[in-house]
Automatic annotation (TrEMBL):
It comes from the Bacteria. Residues 27-375 form the Aminotransferase class I/classII large domain. The keyword NAD does not apply. Keywords: Aminotransferase, Pyridoxal phosphate, Transferase. Pfam families: Aminotran_1_2. This is PLP-dependent aminotransferase family protein.
Length: 383
């Protein structure tokens, strides 16, 4: 059977494909955006999980939008306006897929920062969107490029990760958030705000969501993979009720509804009296690992290799001198350290800037030190 045209042009996820090799004995992985599984709040979930066998109603078919008590909790937690609604998804990745299928026609133009989240590039590619790229500054997208793009082209959506961007770790400044919201409203561009790392802020003050400045022009994607567990596969999309209704229609055809038992477990977890303390400990652990990796990079790598400073999230963006980053990443794997080359995060490979995305949340301080030792040898060979 011949593949669909849209699929023929999509490359498999480099990160998903490398996970097997990255988990081989002796390999230290800085590749996947994996939370540390020792931090999963299973003890806080234990009673809820054990009680599931007594709640047979949770194992019946459920509402497509989600488990009603959980949706009510989210409405209060996120202070949704009366005109807004929400839908629970099988991971925020499904939410992104639903958005693309509900709103994108082949040939529609979507703006993304370059570099950008690989999963979003895949989703919009499968939807046969025309992806327009704008470069990224230290505090967010290049606003001049963004406005020019909005003003000169027919743009339907702008997708971005404003809090601790994947892959660069950049966090948009308040001024950039306000300007992006104003531009989206001015040019009638829908803003898709993906915030899977928002709760992983290690220092500094939490900034308002970009969507808070253009609430009727935005959809917000949230994930519970990073603060609960990835395996429960739950995310959330919030926005105007009529937009959420469109997503609901697509989800009916996709999977009917996400796991109701896991939604009930998530609700119990989020309401657990010790959940906030879990987040405090998680942030402290990840911050210590970020500091350790940053220190090792500064100590052991050449001065022409620069790691950006981040205030949260799961990634460091290591800028490199001119080199073949794909060959470097392959060589690094052969030397026992898995990394992700910058090339996979660009829609237009001609604009690739040599860099590596390094994850620091799923390796110990000792492993991070050894990983940089191995990486230093590889960089010396290739750069």
């Amino acid at each position: 059977m011949k593949l669909a045209t849209s699929l023929q042009e999509i490359q498999p996820s480099y990160i998903r494909e490398i996970l097997s090799a990255a988990s081989a004995p002796g390999v230290i992985s800085l590749a996947g955006g994996l939370p540390d599984d020792t931090t999963f709040p299973l003890a806080l979930m234990a009673k809820s999980l054990s009680d599931l066998s007594n709640k047979t109603q949770l194992f019946q078919y459920g509402n497509t939008a989600g488990y009603t008590p959980l949706l009510n909790y989210f409405r209060s937690l996120y202070q949704l306006p009366a005109s807004h609604s929400s839908i629970v998804c099988t991971g925020s990745q499904q939410g992104l897929d639903l958005i693309a299928r509900a709103f994108i026609n082949p040939g529609d133009s979507v703006v993304m920062e370059a570099p950008s989240y690989l999963g979003a590039i895949q989703v919009f590619g499968l939807a046969q969107a025309n992806i327009e790229s704008v470069s990224q500054d230290p505090d967010g997208p290049n606003l001049d490029e963004l406005e020019t793009c909005f003003a000169t082209k027919d743009i339907k959506l702008f997708y971005a990760v404003p809090d601790f961007h994947n892959p660069t770790g950049v966090c948009w400044s308040l001024a950039v958030r306000q300007k992006v919201a104003q531009l989206c409203q001015q040019y009638k561009v829908g803003f898709i705000e993906d915030v899977p790392y928002r709760e992983l802020r290690y220092k500094g003050d939490f900034l308002p969501l970009v969507s808070s400045f253009c609430p009727d022009n935005s959809l917000v994607l949230r994930s519970y993979s990073k603060i609960a567990t990835p395996g429960i596969r739950l995310g959330l999309v919030t926005g105007k009720a009529d937009w959420i209704t469109a997503l609901n229609t697509v989800k009916q055809a996709a999977d009917l509804h996400s796991s109701v038992p896991m939604q009930a477990v998530l609700l119990d977890l989020l309401q657990h009296p010790d959940f906030d303390e879990h987040l405090v400990k998680l942030r402290a652990l990840y911050y210590s690992r970020y500091q350790a990796l940053s220190q090792q990079i500064a100590l052991k790598l050449p001065s022409n290799c620069y790691a950006n400073s981040v205030d949260g999230g799961m990634f460091i963006w290591l800028s490199l001198p001119d080199c073949d980053v794909d060959a470097l990443a392959q060589s690094a794997l052969e030397h026992g350290v898995a990394v992700v080359p910058s090339s996979v995060f660009y829609q237009d490979r001609a604009t690739v800037i040599p860099a590596l995305r390094l994850n620091f949340t799923n390796a110990s301080v000792e492993e991070l030190s050894e990983a940089v030792d191995r990486l230093a040898k590889v960089i010396k060979l290739h750069c």
